[in-house]
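Hey team,

Filing this mostly as a record. A colleague (T.K.) asked me to run one chain through the structure pipeline before their review meeting, and I want the input and output archived in the tracker in case anyone asks later how it was produced. No errors, nothing strange. Just documentation.

Input sequence:
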Amino acid sequence: MRVVFFSLLFSFFLLASESIVPSSFTVSLVKLCEVLEFSEAPHRKAKKIITHVSSGDCVQNLGCMREVTEKELNEMNETKRAHMAWKYPVWCKVDADGKRGWVRKQFLSDEGCKENL
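Output structure:
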């Protein structure tokens, strides 16, 4: 009975992992001579991870987050909303160049990546 349960559970995870494919994004807003630095945590002062990813390269998006919700932002006046959006930017966990880390969303293009990762 346990063998059947664990094999069903294992096959469920295999099917689930095959259907979940993180989006890929093109890196933007990085000067041609610069590389994109990942952060170990979604915070400006977090330790940096050096990569070889530059503008036009692809990164795999593993999920994005912000400390303030869209609902909270929409309930604020325009000035406070702009300040809170700046203070609490959207951070995305990405995978590229054999490394994983956090990047502010402003460095990722909304258009998907054209090349395969």
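Quick notes for T.K.: Confidence is low (pLDDT under 50) at residues 1-21. The radius of gyration is 18 Å.
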